[in-house]
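Render this sequence as a predicted structure.
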Amino acid sequence: MLSYDAALNMVLANISPLPAVEVPLDEAGGLVLAETVTARWDMPRADNSAMDGFAVTAAKAAGILPIAGAAYAGHPLGVEVAAGRAVRITTGALLPVGCDAVVPVEDTEETAGGVSLKIVPQPGDHLRRQGEEYRRGELLVEAGTLLRAGEIGLLASAGASRVKVHSMPRVALLSTGDELVELGEEPGPGQIVNSNLHQLAARIRECGAKGLRLGIGRDEPGGLDALIDAARQADLLVSTGGVSVGERDYVRETLDHHGFRLIFWKVAIKPGKPVLFGTLGEKPCFGLPGNPAAAAATFELFVRPALRRLAGHTQRHNETRTGILAETVRGGGKRQAFLWCRLEWDGSGYRVIVTNRQGSGQNRSLQGANALLAVPCDVEKLEAGAVVEVQLLRNTT
């Protein structure tokens, strides 16, 4: 049976980033930049004032200086200033020709004859120099960067009105099982609400993708055909349930009828052993187990890295942290175990607290968890106090 690392490498080897599209900058937030952006001009574009005050020539700034005019942001003085004179200036205004320093208004005193200075200015005081933030042609944001508010503001300052980004991945979601009912319906005997659909749709949204909810496929031949046809509009397909070896598990059989190419089925992990991966046409397709915690774990371990790759992220794997294990935990025997846990900062380092509920059929296994702890195959237990590495459920990049 495949190891987790081998299976994940096979997933990533069969997925490429979505094609780049050009969009207005204001629509690019939360998407990944598809091309490196360089500066079109210097920033600042010219020397300007960092304070409200008076622009002067530092070497000649003594006594009472006649006021030779005013320079305001967006309204330059437009004439050269003789040494020994001062110009009233506001923050962001272009430094007048002939001046080399700004004296803040609180360090000055105006009189009938001009302005006197309470300090001795030095050349360069309270100035923003041309190009001190970036120079024309300088790299601003690299391809593969997730565009957040800081990047959007930087690109806007450089005049990048449109940028090329990777599209937001669209994920088709479907569940299988005669025992499932939709949220809002009252479950009958032996039935349960289809919680997987809602948990995964929320998680997909958190991961910066768009979930397309296709509904429930019934446990009968042909019960999934229409849903799988509808899934072709998406960039990736995720189904839950029906991937094991039960008499009424029809996912693999139905996918095969639609031209599915199997890449792997079953991985040596716990929970989530019967996870299925392949391609439907050119699109990646995952069959996750039906148990809620197993579906959620296999989503984190396989689907989330696949979504990051589709979205254009350059970091292949989920982000990790190291911490001190708060209590002893047991492994999964011949399978690599993944345990829901909380990573907490105690003031000097991270503590890893494994949640009490680890049952693959329990939604409460996920509640409050912010990380997954891997216990290697054939490791009976990890002792309290051990330094361990966990996968974060939320990347900071």
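Summary. The helical segments are 4-13, 149-157, 195-206, 225-231, 251-257, 292-310. The longest helix spans residues 292-310.
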